[in-house]
Write a structure and sequence with these properties.
The chain has 95 residues and is an alpha/beta fold. It has 2 domains: 53 residues, no CATH class; 42 residues, no CATH class. The protein has 1 helix and 7 strands. A 3-stranded antiparallel beta sheet has the order 1-2-3. Strands 4-5 form a two-stranded parallel sheet. Strands 6-7 form a two-stranded parallel sheet. The radius of gyration is 14 Å and the shape is globular.
Length: 95
């Protein structure tokens, strides 16, 4: 098993999961319908499709940190994104 594989697990229909990377666990947010089989996922169903996906890009808080050194294509967040993420982050922190 490669060290660069990210696994996410969650109970059925649960919008909060656990992301495992290099032996470390992190809380993560999923679609409000939880994880569903990719064959049943549809745009707008509020679900996170199960499957293997390549991680190609990410975001960072430019107002709080310098751009991290990373092989991914990273983009700074903007104020609209920060506002949209607050309830998700709050739910993870309060988990």
């Amino acid at each position: 098993m490669s060290d660069d594989v990210i696994f996410v697990r969650a109970p059925a229909h649960e919008p909060r999961g656990v992301l495992r990377y290099r032996g470390m666990d992190f809380p993560c947010a999923l679609g409000s319908a939880g994880i569903v089989a990719a064959s049943k996922a549809q745009e707008g169903d509020r679900a996170t499709p199960a499957g293997r996906y390549r991680l190609e890009s990410g975001f960072y808080r430019a107002d709080r940190m310098a751009r991290p050194r990373c092989a991914l294509d990273l983009h700074p967040t903007n104020e609209a994104m920060a506002g949209a993420m607050r309830p998700i982050v709050r739910s993870i922190i309060n988990w």
